[in-house]
Design brief:
By secondary structure, the chain is mainly alpha-helical. It has one domain: Arc Repressor Mutant, subunit A (Orthogonal Bundle), CATH 1.10.10.10. 68% of the residues lie in helices and 11% in strands. It has seven helices and three strands, in the order ααβααββααα. The protein has a three-stranded antiparallel β-sheet. The longest helix has 25 residues. The protein is globular and about 55 Å long. 16% of the residues are buried. Keywords: DNA-binding, Transcription, Transcription regulation.
Length: 156
């Protein structure tokens, strides 16, 4: 792969990203929840604390509308409750209910275990390379996107 062309690199790289996304969609479907609901549960468990909708949007890189729809569904099903954040009535903290915690434990906790098993099958140098090259590629894409977007800065 030393002399791979850009079109070939793009096809393979984008295919890997799409297949990874599909894998997580299949996991969500297996557990009977939407992708967005799964990612919200994932982040709430990962953070181990209540988050606001803004924090979820920023962490998940999803639109406010997408997150809001998933939150409404999770709330209607009794998996989360919203509480006003201290000092800010417009901002609400998202808490897992007992039912939500049980759902997260039988869904995203299994995803965490799956991810950890895959992680442990990589060597330390492979783990470091994935993170280093992924960050470098993202930084270069961000630079190019800023040029394309007339110098507007975002992310990172």
């Amino acid at each position: 792969m030393d002399s791979i062309s850009y079109p070939e690199f793009s096809r393979i790289y984008n295919g890997l990203q799409k297949e990874s996304n599909q894998l997580y969609r299949l996991l969500s479907k297996h557990y009977g929840i939407s992708d967005s609901e799964c990612w919200i549960l994932y982040v709430l468990r990962e953070e181990g604390r209540p988050l606001t909708q803004t924090e979820l949007c920023n962490t998940l890189y999803l639109s406010k509308q997408t997150v809001n729809s998933a939150l409404k569904s999770l709330e209607a099903d009794g998996y989360i409750r919203l509480e006003c954040a201290s000092g800010n009535r417009r901002s609400k903290n998202i808490h897992l209910t007992e039912a939500g915690l049980a759902l997260a434990m039988r869904t995203v906790d299994n995803v965490f275990k799956m991810e950890e098993r895959a992680f442990l099958r990589l060597s330390a140098s492979e783990r470091a390379a994935i993170l280093s090259l992924g960050q470098k590629h993202l930084n270069l894409l961000r630079e190019e996107a800023c040029r394309l977007l007339s110098g507007k800065s975002f992310g990172g």
